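Format notes (please read before filing issues)

Several people have asked whether sequences and C-alpha cells are stored in separate files. They are not. Every record keeps both together, in the order shown below: the sequence lines, then the C-alpha cell lines. Line labels are part of the format and must not be stripped during preprocessing.
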Amino acid sequence: MQMVVIPVDTLTRIFALLDEKGIEQKKFAVLLGTTDKTVSAWRTGRSKSFAKYLPKIAEVLGTTTDYLNYGTRPDAEHLTDEERQLLAAYRQADEKSRAMVRLALNMDSAEPPASALSEKAM
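Then the structure lines:
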C-alpha cells in the first residue's frame, strides 16, 4: 500500500500542484503575470506576496483557493472539463457578462445592466 502525503501549507500545495501538472516555474510566472524571481522567492520562503495572487494561482492550477489555503477540495474534483471551462470563463468575465449569465440561468432576479440590454437589442 502506497502512503499519500498531503501537503500541509499553502506554498507546499501550490508547488506540489505545479510539479504534479509539470508546469515549469518560468511558465507559471508568465501565466500569473509576475517574474520567475518572484516565484522563486515564494518557493524558498523569502516572500509571502503569493497571497495577492491566490485567485489567479488557483485558476492556473485548476483548483480552488480553499484547496490552496486549507487543503479542502469539496465539489471541485467532481466537475467535468466543460464545467471547469465554464467556471474559468465566468471568473474571467466582466460584471456585465456575469450578470447576463446569472440571468440566463435564472440565478439572479435582478435585471442585467442597461448597457447589456441595449447591446442585446442590436
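For reference, the curators noted about this record: The two ends are 62 Å apart (CA to CA). DSSP finds eight helices and no strands in the chain.
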